[in-house]
Amino acid sequence: MTRPLTILGIESSCDDTAAAVVRGTEEAAQVLSSIVFAQTDLHADFGGVVPEIAARAHAEKIDHCVEAALTQAGLTLTDCDAIAVTAGPGLIGGVLSGVMCAKGLAAATGLPLIGVNHLAGHALTPRLTNAVPFPYLMLLVSGGHCQFLIAHARDRFERIGGTIDDAPGEAFDKTARLLALQQPGGPSVERAAHAGDPKRFKLPRPLLDRDDCDMSFSGLKTALLRARDSVIGPEQTLTQRDQSDLAAGFQAAVTDVLTAKTARALDLYLLLQPTTPTLAVAGGVAANMAIRGALTDLCAQRGTAFLAPPLPLCTDNAAMIAYAGLTRFAAGEQDDLTLTARPRWPLDETAPAMLGSGKKGAKA
Ligand code: KG4
Ligand code: ZN
């Protein structure tokens, strides 16, 4: 049994400035505090994250965020064993803010510095929340990521598929804009879809003819635009019925694509004959009840557990970064003050590079 470690985590790769403290071992860790300052309002008028605005907001907030995380945990920096920070992938200005802050703190205190891959943070969350044994299947679905990963070990992730263009969250956000619904688009499209008829508009299910785990969401967005334009009135307004039916049609198409591709990913994963077969999700889109429901049913049919960690740990946060850092530090790994920000940093360096780059910056 290794000794419990206390790790400060810092995250600033996209539009959330976050800091957290996690304590424990790789097998049993506890989140002592988790602070997230979201930038949603700052970007709301621009239809996406504006990198310069994000970077400035991170630089302004990050110190306060670290202070708040330590206060909430009832600790000071001297109680920590190491400082973990997202070193990529993400928007370069944001990642730099976090890395510079962590380096400053490490230089001032002499604490070890640990660079963490943001995607490893998401991918290891099922270990933090539920101590899920390896190997498990992970579906990351957010505004910036969409990929299937088989987590074999804390430092070995196999990417078996992903989006070749937009991420689903991005598509939800664009759909909301087309339908004059509020941002972030996911929750408002889901709300509008409740009362809608998902069958009224015939929307495509891209790439389902391909026997792999890759997905595409940009054509769906264009199809939605055409469907909208076929019913929009001379005043450029949509009736509530049209809005609901279009939202329901879009959500059903995304759900069908994610479910069909997850079924293929499960086929590949189950070949490994895992002792505790588990599909875990992460990312904001995992909050969608229609998608969750479909994945829950699919897993039940395949004798696989379905795990959706609590939403604050599914979306961007620093507790996952602290935990991923803890696993690196416990294994004797650390970085030094030459640690650099990596805007592109695939988790599986052996998988072919993915195309596309969404509103939230480079995809790994
Ligand atoms: O993980 P997240 O907070 O940030 C990153 O993208 O990294 O995910 C945010 C994304 C947004 O695009 C948002 O529209 C989407 O997740 N989202 C949803 C729902 N809630 C948030 N998409 C579909 N249904 C939802 N209920
Ligand atoms: Zn993320």
Overview of the structural elements:
With 364 residues, this protein is α/β, with parallel strands linked by helices. The chain folds into 2 domains: 5-127 and 316-330, Nucleotidyltransferase, domain 5, CATH 3.30.420; 133-311, 2-Layer Sandwich (Nucleotidyltransferase, domain 5). Helices cover 42% and strands 20% of the residues. The protein contains 11 helices and 12 strands. It has helices at residues 40-43, 51-73, 92-109, 118-130, 168-178, 185-194, 218-231, 240-270, 289-301, 311-314, 319-330; strands at residues 5-11, 16-24, 29-38, 82-88, 113-117, 136-141, 146-153, 156-162, 278-282, 305-307, 357-358, 361-362. Strands 3-2-1-4-5 form a 5-stranded mixed β-sheet, with helices on both faces. Strands 8-7-6-9-10 form a 5-stranded mixed β-sheet, sandwiched between helices. It has a two-stranded antiparallel ribbon with strand order 11-12. A hairpin with a 4-residue loop joins strand 6 and strand 7 (146-153). Helix 5 packs antiparallel against helix 8. It is globular. The two termini are 34 Å apart. Residues 356-364 have low confidence and may be disordered. The protein binds 5'-O-[(R)-(carboxyoxy)(hydroxy)phosphoryl]adenosine (KG4) and zinc ion. Zinc ion is lined by residues 118, 122, 142, 144-145, 316.
- Report the C-alpha radius of gyration, rounded: 20 Å
CATH superfamily of the largest domain: ATPase, nucleotide binding domain
Query: Which residues sit in consecutive blocks of at least 5 with pLDDT less than 50?
Result: 356-364
Principal-axes geometry comes out as globular
Mean pLDDT: 93
Secondary structure tally, helices: 11
> Would you count the extended β strands for me?
12
State the helical fraction: 40-55%
Gap from first CA to last CA: 34 Å
Strands of the biggest beta sheet: in what spatial order?
A: 3-2-1-4-5
State the order of secondary-structure elements, H for helix, E for strand.
Answer: EEEHHEHEHEEEHHHHEHEHHEE
Strand content: 15-25%
Helix/strand-derived category reads alpha/beta
How would you classify the quaternary structure?
A: single chain
**How many strands, which pairing sense, and closed or not: the largest β-sheet?**
5 strands, mixed
- The first-level CATH class name of the largest domain: Alpha Beta
Molecules bound to protein: 5'-O-[(R)-(carboxyoxy)(hydroxy)phosphoryl]adenosine, zinc ion
